[in-house]
Design brief:
NADH Oxidase, 4-stranded antiparallel β-sheet, alpha+beta, binds flavin mononucleotide, 323 residues
Length: 323
């Protein structure tokens, strides 16, 4: 069994600021996934929900890749008989999942932050994206960008964006995960590289000046609005409870939707600010009318765009944990 390949596929998952907050270990047919809290984001993600969503994305990639090579996965969330908090995946021999399309999409999927071309996603494909959420612990709301229902969502995005970019700690944390030069990108193999953010590579000192001079709250808010209007739909992922297991399930569900989109030639990107700022998340929750335990935690736009350069990933030796 090629467990190294399965773990490699897991690491191609998205993660907040590309922190890659995971470690893995392998013992015969059992793979453990551990949260790596040294890579958490205390300002933008103080309760670590985004960290667990990222782990859910990695878990889903691993399971899809295992299914493709004939293994059925049994997942134990945070088993009590393990020394450390982890997710335990036991691979059995008898799987034969029909996952070819989404499996192939794992190595191609990317967060695409560019302006999209405004083309509408056909209803059949919107339905395929909706159907890709196979987990009953997660609800999905879809907003079409040519529908009037999008307007309050855009206002929540702009309001949250202004709050974030007026917060020095948020900007500091963001800058700490930006990789401005090629050298930084090559050395760290994590974070947000200049090219995926749409900037040229520059030395770090210059990058910091550019961010502080040109990235202003109002400008960012109106850029987000344009990005949304250039997209076809937005999808809001809502956990039916607000706990670690449901956060992971949101990640699993989102990853399946993102891979399905990729397989259909549809681009996606996070427009996650209204889920990150608690006061706006509460307003958003009231606006869409969720029940007491439900929590809207991911907001994604979908549409059509040219591919961008890929985000780096750390090598296997940095993410494997000795048993
Ligand atoms: C939980 C979560 C939250 C994210 N939030 C944002 C966000 O607010 N803005 C953004 O541009 N990208 C966001 N991303 C996308 C990551 O930055 C992206 O996955 C990472 O940089 C790796 O790039 P890739 O998805 O192209 O592999 C988020 C991803 C995850 C999993």
């Amino acid at each position: 069994m090629n467990t190294q390949k399965l773990i490699h596929y897991a690491t191609l998952a998205p993660s907040g600021h590309n922190t890659q907050p995971w470690k893995f270990s392998v013992n015969e047919n059992v793979i453990h996934i551990y949260p790596d809290f040294s890579r958490c984001l205390p300002v933008v993600d103080p309760d670590d929900h985004a960290l667990y969503i990222s782990l859910g994305c990695a878990l889903e990639n691993l399971i899809i890749a295992a299914g493709q090579i004939g293994h059925k996965s049994i997942v134990d969330y945070f088993p009590k008989d393990e020394k450390e908090e982890c997710i335990r995946v036991t691979l059995n021999e008898n799987g034969n999942d029909d996952v070819e399309d989404i499996y192939r999409a794992i190595t191609v999927r990317q967060s695409n932050r560019s302006m999209y071309n405004g083309k509408e996603i056909p209803d059949d494909d919107v339905q395929k994206l909706r159907d890709a959420n196979v987990y009953d612990t997660v609800n999905i709301n879809i907003f079409k960008t040519n529908d009037k229902d999008i307007e309050p969502i855009i206002e929540f995005v702009k309001e949250a964006n202004r709050i974030q970019f007026n917060d020095k700690r948020f900007v500091q944390e963001l800058i700490s995960w930006m990789r401005f030069s090629k050298k930084e990108m090559r050395n760290r193999k994590d974070g947000l590289t200049a090219e995926v953010m749409g900037f040229p590579f520059v030395p770090r000192w210059l990058g910091r000046i550019i961010i502080k001079t040109f990235v202003k709250p109002e400008r960012e808010a109106s850029k987000c609005e344009k990005q949304i209007r250039s997209s076809s739909i937005m999808m809001l992922f809502i956990g039916k409870k607000n706990d670690k297991k449901h956060w992971m399930d949101i990640g699993r569900s989102f990853e399946r939707v993102a891979l399905t989109a990729t397989s259909l030639g549809i681009a996606h990107a996070h427009i996650n600010m209204p889920c990150e700022v608690v006061s706006i998340r509460e307003k958003l929750a009231r606006h869409i009318g969720v029940t007491e335990n439900e929590e809207p935690l991911l907001l994604i736009r979908f549409g059509y765009a040219k591919k961008l350069p890929r985000s780096p990933r750390r090598p296997m030796k940095e993410i494997m944990k000795p048993l």
